[in-house]
Amino acid sequence: MKVLVAIKRVIDPYVKIRVKSDGSGVETNNVKMAMNPFCEIAVEEAVRLKEAGYADEIIVLSAGETSCQEQLRTALALGADRAIHIDTESHLEPLTVAKLLRAVMKQEQPSLVLLGKQSIDSDNNQVAQMLAALTQCSQGTFASMLSIEGDGVTVTREVDGGLETLKLTLPAIISTDLRLNEPRYASLPNIMKAKKKSMQVITPDELGVGISHHQQILAITPPPQRQAGMRIGSVAELVDKLKNEAKVI
Amino acid sequence: MATLIIAEHNNQVVAQDTLKAIQAGLSIDSTVTVLIVGKNCRFVADELSQVKGVDNVLLADEPVYEYQLAENVAELIVEIAAHYSHILAAATTFGKNLMPRVAALLDVGQLSDVIEIQSPDTVIRPIYAGNALAQVKSEDSIKVITIRSAAFDAAQAGDSQAEILELNKVIPSDLSEFVSRQTPESERPELAAARVVVSGGRGLGSKEGFAMVETLADKLGGAIGASRAAVDAGFVSNDLQVGQTGKIVAPELYIAIGISGAIQHLAGMKDSKVIVAINSDPDAPIFQIADYGLVGDLFELVPELIKSLD
């Protein structure tokens, strides 16, 4: 079967971000970028499905500026077969991303679409669910385990209070949680090979998707700063502070 | 304006988060409608009908809704959505799973994990693991919103009882099927709603080491939490993880034991009222936000702390 994986280029998770002083956004110039960690897990899962003989082809897709081809190359080096870059400089809201993905799904007819559960920049946690709605597919969000069984996929989901297992009809849209797997590193020979793999560039217009805006970001501000408190010398002093100063115990 | 709250429950008990979503809804309008979808969940409807500010309860009580699967529940919500300007749920795994599906079916955007409602169309939500706040204005006719529970108080019981209206609409679930659920039993308070949270990290070294966290939490009547490192090392189950990818908590007292304080962890607890850090590394980033910091060997300090609370 064919697996489609959607990935996003984001600021590297270990970078301490800086909010621009004019409130227009977060500084991205000269900031290290990376593949969103949840997307790495989605790529890894697709590669494992191929290694296990379930997937025949892995298509990796990203929407955004030309620079997101870097992350697509990374995914190709990790084992994806070909890449699709949806080239646009517009700001993309989750609903638009879902519509772009729906258009690609129509062309490619994948049995499984894997996405990260959320991007660590906008923290929306929406695209997979929206794509499932638009395509009338089943959804398995926050997956920590999945197995292909016949014409379906069994997904264990991380839910508040524990785990939940569902059986989904294919085609299914799955979003990955951190514990689904541990992503591999790309080897140098694979990075070299990835340069020869196909990178199809397509515009939203060519896919017939208009870019709509449903929300307006009025301002981005730093959160209120929490001041460091005091160092305490002993357990007795701590208990005293908690009882008499903070009055929380 | 009319606001619809999607209730979360296990067919018997209302989730505390729903009361917070109701309170958030009341900041948009003076009354709200609550929708309960499930099987044999009449009791939940009775309970929610007595909450202050709830003037209407819609009940969809059918076997097909037993496990509240997103596929058919989203369709059901869309059936009645046209009557509302706002549709809210708590940003729990239930709300996060369901609401974007509802939004997309309505062809509107969603405002996720909102911490403040400034006006009926403008909200504040954290981005970049809470390292920035975005003020966002929705231009949609129906606003689909998930609420960060830790940022709102719970709605209280009122003195009147709202009318319960049954929705006789059965939408079968053909796309997905519930198989099983694993829920670790716990006597402790629910993590997201606890007044005190004691969390442990990699520094505890083992599952046995983590037992100190449990003992301390029990002494304080608190819930236990964990960092991702502690979950990955198998000390505790993943539903106790606090952070960007786990639960967001804001208790009165948060005690972090053997947790360095990575950005992703801080995203889940930095709005706690009082933060205590106990760590052997004096340079751990957790000390930059802790109100009270204690540097030293956990295996000496924590048992001493437990003992001094007797």
What is the compact description of this entry?
The complex is a heterodimer of chains A (249) and B (310). Chain A is built from 7 helices and 13 strands.
Please describe the structure with a list of short key phrases separated by commas or semicolons:
heterodimer, A: 249 residues, alpha/beta, 9-stranded mixed sheet, two-stranded antiparallel sheet, 29% helix, globular, B: 310 residues, 7-stranded parallel sheet, 5-stranded parallel sheet, 8 helices, 16 strands, 25% helix, elongated
Q: How does this structure look, described?
A:
Chain A is an alpha/beta fold. Chain A contains 7 helices and 13 strands. Chain A has helices at residues 37-51, 69-78, 94-108, 127-135, 188-194, 204-207, 235-245; strands at residues 2-6, 9-11, 33-35, 57-64, 82-87, 112-116, 138-149, 152-159, 162-169, 172-176, 199-202, 215-221, 230-232. The radius of gyration of chain A is 21 Å and the shape is globular. With 310 residues, chain B is α/β, with parallel strands linked by helices. Helix content of chain B is 25%, strand content 28%. Chain B has helices spanning 16-26, 42-48, 70-81, 93-105, 207-220, 228-232, 263-266, 298-308; strands spanning 3-6, 32-38, 54-61, 86-90, 110-114, 116-119, 122-127, 132-138, 143-147, 163-166, 176-182, 196-200, 223-226, 253-257, 274-279, 292-295. Chain B has a 7-stranded parallel sheet, with helices on both faces. A 5-stranded parallel sheet of chain B has the order 13-12-14-15-16. In chain B, strand 2, helix 2 and strand 3 form a beta-alpha-beta unit. In chain B, helix 3 (70-81) crosses helix 4 (93-105). At the A-B interface, helix 3, helix 4, strand 7, strand 8 and strand 9 of A face helix 3, helix 4, strand 5, strand 7 and strand 8 of B.
